[in-house]
Write the structure tokens for this entry.
Amino acid sequence: MRAYISVFKLRLYDGMQYRTAALAGVATQFFWGFIVIMVFQAFYSHTESPPPISLPQLTTYIWLQQSFLAFIMLWFRDNELFQLITTGNIAYELCRPSGIYGFWYAKLLAQRIASAMLRCFPILLVAFLLPRPYKIELPPDPVAFGLFVIALLLGLFIIVAISMLIYISVFVTLSPAGSLMMFSVFGEFMAGGVIPIPLMPEWLQNIVRLLPFHLTADFPFRVYSGHIPQEAAVSGIVIQLIWLAGLLAAGKFMMDKALRRVVVQGG
């Protein structure tokens, strides 16, 4: 465990160094956030029936997406790990006196947290100062905010566990681009990154609820805005814990199986 904590700290400190890149990302996310909000604002202004999620809640949803983008995006990757697998340098990782799954999990977790810490505070600060309908709203009460924090952190652990499955799949496909594209496109849509889940057709929402992706983004963001009641939020957190345990167990099993069959050319 000490080795995992050490690599987590090192990756966290290393990720905090890229402040200029983070500022560029903040500008991009502000631009994209405004575009998405204006699109939905135009859509809401021409709808006749009451929408399943209010415009202030949807605006908050979008700003939280942009603020915690590093927590929820599957295309957030570590090219170094892909190169270790495809070039055969995974042999050096096998020499470490620690499990590869936990070692890589700690690295990926630290990278996402570092990126989010550099970007979320400027976005949230400005979003709170904007006029309506572009303003992010406060949570309805402190309990909702506490549940949001728990759900967001559990969602982060789940997204890292899913990301580990992408790296493990490269042991078989030897195609980082293919594995990343397959998982990220499907996962982003099912997490509500393209269309918020309350705006999807009912039949599609039923499919989304069967998968873990919505627990990483849609669920915590709607808990924050109060769109998901507190009783349902507690039940959702329990489901998050179940999915997290299952994904970690599956990932560890698949990693062990992949390492037993790995072939390093030349040695």
About this structure: The mean pLDDT is 83. The longest helix spans residues 142-173.
